[in-house]
Model the fold of this input.
Amino acid sequence: MFVKYGIVNKVRIIIFFIFLGLFAAAYQIGSMSTVSEEEAKAFMAEFEELVLDIDAFGIFIHNLTISLPMFIPGFGVVWGLFSAWSTGFAFASIALITPQIAEIPPLSILFLTPFGLMELVAYSFGISRSFILIRAIVKKIDLVPLVKPTLIEIGIVVGLLLVGGYLEFYMIEMAQKEGLLDISGV
Done:
């Protein structure tokens, strides 16, 4: 019995890392998109309106509304990869308008910032769980044993995004105080 759980855990870890890699690849592809100046300005206008009065809890709620659909069997994989691509596209838009951002490698935001890493892990949990669930449905495997691990992973995602939201807000405030970030001047 323990051998079976060991194999299941190894497969779960492998699936998690596969989708972590796919999320990062979709993000990178989005960040390499060609963005017209009109598209970038339109995006920045929407972005400024979105972040104008946002606080740490608002960042958390925003990220949570993006991540929870990622747990939907099948749909979550598509939603998650689209979210990754569109976030990369947003980076490309910001980089076009703000030359200092263009100097930052896009993947470094995911892998080298604490909040980026937390979001990457959270989204990878959701996308990979979506794949596991749709695979179980297609193979007609009983879903009852998958309920508990799914709920645990949702709890982990909520915790990661809550901490990540507060950390991201703190880092944005620090960057603004240091004069490194000026959203209103973009």
Observations:
- The chain has a mean pLDDT of 89.
- The chain has one domain: 2-177.
- The CA atoms of residues 15 and 128 lie 6 Å apart.
- The first helix runs from residue 2 to 31.
